[in-house]
Amino acid sequence: MIATKTMWKNVRRSPYQAAAAILIMTLTFLAVSFFTFLVLGSSKIINYFESKPQVTAFFRNEAKQAEMDALKKEIESTGKVSSVKFLSKDQALEIYKDQNKDDPLLLDLVTADILPASLEISTYKIDDLSFSSDLLKKSPIVQEVIFQKDVVATLSSWTNAIRQVGISLIVILSLASIFIMMTIIGMKISQKKEDIEIMTLIGASRWHIRWPFIFEGIFYGVFGAIIGWTIATVGLIYASPFLSTFLKGVPLFPVPLIFYGELLALEIIFAITLGAVASYLAVLRYLK
User: What is the pTM (predicted TM-score) of this model?
Assistant: First the structure.
């Protein structure tokens, strides 16, 4: 109780130093929250595409209906596909019109003759996409083949890059937080040098003197974590309508409220650890 009161006095007597400590902690946990949202969101998008393995084959304009039907039956006979859907030129035009119904100019420029017929093939396993793709590419009536494995591979590489950048940035900010906190706590210890000497002379224990400074570091960490988490969470909630439209079909939103709570709890635990370590190192260095 006494340590907590002393901690509050230390914070109130040096507001600018307290603000600097809270600011660096806020930036650290803003980065933690942001990259957590980004990595977990990317992982869910990857899982979505992996759960819907699909190959799309576009036919050449000169392909005949009988040839396309024969290829469809050949794909079905492999036993590796869960469904095969044929889209004619007219059906492709209807889809195009629906997607561009708000732009009359684009509708006037496109006719069914210039749109290719296609096959949409879903497989039971994502590993079977390559087999189906290779089989389709061998057909002389197929002009182009697109399959989700390319999308998943690209997303995976981006997610790994984001994860590496995020971890690096969080480590750098965490180390910066520790050094800045050590400096601020060290300055406060220097300012209270005479008081500490008096407390030592009257019999105060080492931990009685140390606890207020350690609590102060924990306070800066927790307060900064709450602010950083709040900014990131409000930003994500505000951007959710736009992201939902952009990622239409991907079940990413709404984010469960329990996720926000769990993330905050984990960040507070990390903040307590970070603040306590920084303060303890400062105490060991300046308070001898």
Answer: 0.70
